[in-house]
Amino acid sequence: MLDLIGIIYFTLSVLYLLGSFPIGVFEFLDLREGYAISDYATLFETSTYFSISAIITGLLCGLDSITNPIYKKVSINIYNYHALSSFALLGIGLFPLTGDGVWSFPRVFHWLFALTFILVYPATRLLILKHYNKRAFEKLLIVFLSLNILALLVTIVVQFKNIAYPEYLMWLSLLLTIVVSKILISRKSKNAE
């Protein structure tokens, strides 16, 4: 349940920032043409709030993944990858973007944390769901892959100028995967008891 609270909290935090401080207005501060959701970490007005929200969410997701006994019934490798990737959002908060160049060390490090959380965390959750419910796994996998492929297509269409739009699709994919899989896994584990 902690992961659901964390992900919904982070979603609402980003929506609040998006409404209060539209990203495109601050595009010039990022020293590149496009902008991404993580650019909130570069703005004085929003950096602390964004980073703390990411840290809290990373901790909640991580604590859920290591304390929930449901996840310990799968293979040890899947469990370990799930636990490690669930803490990745913590890294985004601890290592926020800076105004440095596109290929600077902090920016690449930040991207690795972001991609790990957005792609690996829900993928490992899908593998856990497969252990409990193969039919639901197949359906949810199609949704997960479809939204991420659509995000890639949007990235190509906007020519990598506005990364925030594909990020919204990828976050929607993560949100759906985590919420639906959590509900299905909880039901299966209760029925098994």
UniProtKB/TrEMBL annotation:
It comes from the Bacteria. The keyword Transmembrane applies. The chain crosses the membrane at residues 7-29, 49-66, 78-97, 109-128, 140-162, 168-185. Keywords: Membrane, Transmembrane, Transmembrane helix. This is DUF998 domain-containing protein. It comes from candidate division WS6 bacterium GW2011_GWB1_33_6. The lineage of its organism: Bacteria, Candidatus Dojkabacteria.
